[in-house]
Amino acid sequence: MNASGAKCMTSEELYNLSNSGAGTLITKSCTISPREGNPSPRYVDLKLGSINSMGLPNLGFDFYLDYVLEQHESGNDDIFFSIAGLTLEENIEMLTRVQNSDFRGIVELNLSCPNIPGKPQTGYDFERTNEVLNKIFYFYTKPLGVKLPPYFDLVHFEMMAEILNQYPVQFVTCINSIGNALYIDDESAVIKPKGGFGGIGGAYVKPTALANVRMFYKLLRKDISIIGCGGVETGKDVFEHILCGASMVQIATQLMKEDTRIFSRLISELEEIMSSKNYKALEDFKGKLIEL
Ligand code: SIN
Predict the structure, then answer these.
(1) Whose CA is nearest to atom 2 of ligand 1?
(2) Domains, the chain, ordered by start
(3) Which one-letter DSSP state was computed for residue 244?
(4) What is the mean pLDDT of residues 231-239?
(5) Its pTM surpasses 0.85
(6) I need a labelling partner for 132 at 20 to 30 A (CA). Which of 141, 148, 170, 208 fits?
(7) Averaged over 197-225, what is the pLDDT?
(8) Centroid of ligand 1 to alpha carbon of 268 (angstroms)
(9) Are 157 and 216 in contact (CB under 8 A)?
(10) Ligand 1 site, CB within 6 A
(11) Edge to edge, what strands does the sheet with 49-52 contain?
(12) Taking all residues of the chain, what is their mean pLDDT, rounded to a whole number?
């Protein structure tokens, strides 16, 4: 599937995704009110990936709720709805409306956008994450997972897993971009927001993404699925995410580069790898990384 943010903001983009070879789709992370996002240039393709500081441009909660409800009416409930309130109160307001709606799909709560000036990434504040989940699961009973930032310290993996294991979280998406990187061309930053600081995606982040998938696969309750995200360009990348423990993968940078044709290419490349190894199903190799 796409990662939230990649080609999933407008009706046309969502239509294209739903008519692609993707297994499912996720909507752009939304806030209650529509947002323009950060000033441009705010997304730049790099040799080994991308840098972005989009700032959550989106058409507002009502637009995406209408979209997922329309999908529900046409019998499509296998859909992900991304929510990224700028405050806990905003998340509670949106999720209360989702809870009270006919939506039967899955919410991905984005706790990791690195691009809003003045707003910390919730996923790096363990106490706050616990408070957010506590307040949300007090009333929210539909399937919900969280999109996490990348972690780099083994103790942080353990701290986050301990929090997540207390709640009926259905999945985690690992990882959002590696936030606040700086890419320079000649003498200039390549994006405008935040003095050129932005989230890095693509091949640069694949080893970090795989490590996050792997650690959470080991530390989380077995009923919490992992969605791998980071550096997926080929069927081999998909294979490696699944080998580390992912049940699904999301694609952002390479979807931006290649468009929705990427999904059928990845599926056939993955199928080729599986048949060369005589694997019939993802379960045959999911989580079975050989550790030396
Ligand atoms: C953005 O809109 O800035 C990207 C979304 C994210 O990183 O969560």
Answers:
(1) 56
(2) 11-38+56-182+204-284 (3.20.20.70)
(3) H
(4) 98
(5) yes
(6) 208
(7) 98
(8) 29
(9) yes
(10) 5, 29, 54-56, 110, 112-115, 176-177, 199
(11) 43-46, 49-52, 197-201, 178-182
(12) 98
